[in-house]
Amino acid sequence: MHSPDPELLTFARQMRDDLNRLTMEHQFAVDEVLTKVSILRQEFLHLNQYNPIEHVGSRVKSVQSILEKAIRRNLDLTPAAIREALTDIAGVRITCSFIADTYRILETLTAQADVKVVQIKDYIAEPKPNGYRSLHAIIEITVFLSTGEVPVRVEVQIRTIAMDFWASLEHKIYYKYAGVVPEHLAQSLLEAATSAQQLDRRMEQLHAEVHGPKLADDVPDPVWDAIDEDVLLRAWEANRRPQP
Asked: Residue 228 above 60 pLDDT?
């Protein structure tokens, strides 16, 4: 058995170390985004007694997957070149109840001062030819490491439950047929996408009919559960005293 080429071993170790660090940085960026989304969920529940986010998922591509894609795209195999060219190394998917919720979450997330918007694609307003619908945003998050700041891009997908179900089924079908889907199945998928869109619209209408416009006075006020009545009365009296 021949010994590995020393130059190949050096290259392999360097590539492993570089890509491991790259995936680590992207995992940290995903963690930052997940924290932001978690805070938004809790805020909506606390202030509005309503959570527009049904589910949140995330992933970071493996070292092998990153390397294979970089080779396919004929990129320079350096961390800087890969980081610049591949914007889908890190991904976060947010599933919402209704279409209006998807836009609300996108707006509140991208409006944060430490989030830089690189690109937004609205596939809800303009679906892909195959029927795919979702909001896509490439955002840049600053990760603070011991060696300094690192800007890292994260792909965020925001969609409804119906859109997510359709996308999951479409992915399985395309995987099964290696991307070459029979015409009748492609047509059925397109028809299913239309049905999913109609379902989204109808469910949103039903939600509006049941709940109507939510006013501040309509939100339950749990003040008596949060503060003991005796403490509240003493605070009220203290607040009414003339200040010296």
From this structure: yes
- In terms of Cα–Cα distance, which of 67, 53, 81 is closest to 15? 67
pTM of the model: 0.83
Note the pLDDT tens digit of each residue in 160-184. Answer: 999 999 999 888 887 788 778 888 8
- Assess contact for 138 and 151: CB atoms under 8 A: no
Under 8 Å between Cβ of 140 and 74: no
Q: 41, 108 in Cβ contact below 8 A? A: no
Give the residue numbers marked as catalytic: 155
Do residues 181 and 171 lie in contact, with contact meaning Cβ atoms separated by under 8 Å? no
Distance CA 186, CA 197 (A): 17
Kindly report the CATH class assigned to 6-240. alpha beta
Residue 59: how many CB atoms within 10 A of its CB?
Answer: 15
Q: And the tokens for 134?
A: 């979702």
Q: Is-contact 130 66, C-beta < 8 A?
A: no
In the chain, where the domains are located: 6-240
Percent of the chain with pLDDT over 90: 57
CA distance 37 to 141: 14
The two tokens of residue 12 are 């392999």
The secondary structure element, H or E, covering residue 57 is strand 53-60
Residues with Cβ within 8 Å of 173's Cβ and at least 6 positions away in sequence, in order, are 181, 185, 189
